[in-house]
Specification:
Radius of gyration: 38 Å
Number of strands: 35
Length: 630
């Protein structure tokens, strides 16, 4: 089985089928000029000293004096003093680097199309200070490309390969450009599912003339057409290979077209399943079956989050309050990226929330995500509410997902909510059924601490709500009424991340929720305020039929998980005419600082937030969230 790692298919520096391009094979006589005379090491042939053997001085013996000083270099081409090709001569190279400097001269001359350039001899004057070296070169005729023919091609059209050639007939032959052309042609084969293809220069033919022309014949060894036979992971990994294939956008048993190890690694790193992903390795058998091995380190199987908040004393004289929540999250259940979450939330005013959900991102092995969720809410003695929601999503490429949702909501008034205030019961007894569609997008480089990318969630729902309540008549009696109303809800969340400088990121976002209904009661409205919705304000401080928040964060990233940030929030709340309160709309700014950092136990996130109405910094809201890995 052949092992193919990233870049292993690339060709080494290409021989052009002619020894004249091998500098190391060239040897030239060296004339050494000293104060006592001239030693000509070039005649007769049997006694010549060559640059590849005796012309370079031996290395100093142990304990010898300082190394050889740099020399002054000049060049003669075709018997005339010439400028150094490609720039200035070497400034500090000693005489011992003679062969290396000569190689550079030849490479630069050949890059200009002088295919037959050669070094004839070198003159070394050691008595000068510093020593002087003159190279004598023959440029030879400039060679242009004659014809380029291709052989061995069948899987890829010749026209597609020729489009990658920048080496064109009639132009000077440049070996470096030809090397890039061959790499581009190999990339074309990779995209077609032949990553083991090789291209070599099988034959060169020189045609004399003015200028001389060199005909090239390129032969392609296409190798087998690769198909994905298996995916392997480290022995301790829980993740299933089928999930890796899905995340990397690969198909088991299908031809591997467009194979790119860097792209596969980047896609896997974006998933919130792996803590780190190493370079993938490809092993290929004789029939073209490819086994892709991906070295991964998985994230913890779950976490427990504990969030605590301190709310300062209210203006009415009440003491400060401690609010908090606990959340258990399980990830990558049974190795298929399935998740389960459980959340308990204690909020001000004897309010409690219970939220549980489970999701399978690959239902029946397809790009279908199925999620079920239950949310229970108890608002002191005002009302209780239960919400059941099912979501089915279909994922496209590029991080896009379309959603279909169905939800049922049941609201029951408590002792306080059942009271008739004004002309109507405060909280009706109601049931509602909603259907909706949605769109999700996520494409970030790092899920926990993004540097670039974005997220989007948009959901549109329409439903019918049945209300039953008591109404007070004009003569003071109460009657039971039943009303059916049509409602529409629009909810959206947008986040964007833009790198500014090294380790500095600008995060911007927008949250918006709108309810459209002929009439409203308190259980219908959206609630905002607190660390998760509008920082600088108490939890669930505001009620509205249309609420929104724009946020801006300037983050200083510390590592892949940790960052410090300053933030600003601007909230909007539109409240309908409800009970004794008139309709209103207001803006609510908030601002503060925070930090998130990783510890041996887990991730810690702390924020301190204020609003313009706060009398002093002591009135700020403090929230602390601890996330413990399981």
């Amino acid at each position: 089985m052949q092992r193919l790692s990233p870049g292993a298919h690339r060709l080494p520096p290409l021989p052009l089928g002619n020894d004249r391009l091998s500098v190391a094979a060239r040897a030239f006589p060296v004339r050494t000029v000293s104060g006592s005379g001239t030693s000509v090491q070039g005649a007769p042939p049997e006694s010549q000293t060559r640059a590849s053997d005796a012309s370079v001085p031996d290395a100093p013996a142990p304990g010898a004096s300082a190394p050889e000083a740099g020399a002054t270099w000049t060049l003669t081409v075709d018997g005339q003093a010439a400028d150094w090709p490609g720039g200035d001569p070497p400034a500090t190279a000693p005489i011992g680097d003679l062969e290396h400097v000569a190689s550079q001269v030849l490479e630069r001359l050949r890059a200009r199309g002088y295919y037959y350039a050669r070094i004839d001899s070198a003159t070394v004057r050691r008595s000068a200070s510093p020593p002087r070296v003159r190279l004598h070169a023959t440029r030879g005729p400039q060679v242009v490309v004659g014809s380029i023919t291709l052989s061995g091609t069948s899987a890829v059209e010749v026209a597609s390969l020729r489009r990658e050639l920048r080496t064109q007939p009639g132009r000077p032959l440049r070996p470096d450009r030809l090397k890039r052309d061959l790499d581009a042609m190999l990339q074309t084969y990779e995209d077609a599912g032949y990553p083991l293809a090789q291209i070599r220069i099988a034959e060169t033919t020189l045609r004399r003339g003015s200028p001389a022309q060199l005909d090239l014949r390129l032969h392609v060894d296409e190798g087998p057409a690769l198909w994905l036979k298996a995916i392997t992971l480290p022995e301790e990994a829980r993740t299933s290979p089928s999930l890796v294939a899905h995340l990397a956008d690969l198909q088991m048993g299908e031809r591997m077209t467009g194979y790119n190890p860097a792209t596969i690694r980047r896609r896997l790193q974006r998933a919130d399943v792996f803590a780190s992903v190493g370079p993938p390795e490809l092993r290929v058998d004789a029939e073209g079956g490819a086994t892709l091995h991906v070295p991964v380190e998985e994230t913890s199987p779950g976490s427990f989050d504990l969030a605590l908040g301190y709310l300062p004393p209210s203006p009415g004289g009440g003491g400060g309050q401690i609010v908090g929540s606990g959340r258990l999250a399980l990830r990558n259940l049974f190795g298929g990226a399935r998740t389960a979450r459980l959340k308990l939330d204690r909020r001000p005013g004897q309010t409690s929330l219970f939220d549980v959900s489970a999701a399978d991102p690959r239902l029946f092995g397809r790009p279908l995500r199925l999620e079920g969720r239950f949310r229970g809410e108890q608002r002191d003695s005002t009302f209780s509410q239960r919400r059941y929601r099912g979501t089915l999503g279909y994922r496209f490429g590029g991080g896009w997902e379309v959603l279909g949702t169905v939800s049922r909501e049941v609201t029951r008034p408590g002792q306080e909510g059942a009271q008739v205030r004004g002309r109507r019961q405060a909280i009706p007894r109601s049931e509602a059924l909603f259907y909706g569609v949605g769109l999700r997008f996520e494409h970030v480089d790092r899920p926990r601490n993004p540097r670039r990318g974005g997220r989007l969630m948009l959901r549109l729902e329409r439903g019918q709500k049945e209300r039953r309540f008591f109404r007070r008549t004009a003569d003071g009696d109460t009657t039971r009424q039943r009303v059916s109303v049509a409602q529409e809800r629009i909810e959206s969340t947008v986040r964007g991340y833009l790198p500014l400088f090294d380790r500095q990121v600008l995060a911007a976002g927008l949250d918006a929720s709108v309810l459209l209904s002929p009439s409203y009661d308190r259980s219908d409205l959206f609630r905002v305020g607190g660390a998760q919705s509008l920082r600088g304000y108490d939890e669930d401080r505001f009620l509205g039929r249309a609420v929104g928040r724009a946020l801006l964060e300037y983050r200083l990233q510390i590592d892949r998980v940790s960052y410090a940030y300053a933030f600003g929030d601007l909230g909007y709340v539109e409240r309908p005419d409800l009970e004794a309160a008139d309709a209103s709309h207001d803006w609510h700014p908030g601002y503060g600082v925070g930090i998130q950092f990783g510890t041996a136990l887990g991730i810690v996130n702390a924020t301190y937030a204020l609003q313009p109405a706060d009398a002093s910094p002591a009135s700020g809201r403090v929230h602390l969230r601890l996330s413990f890995a399981l």
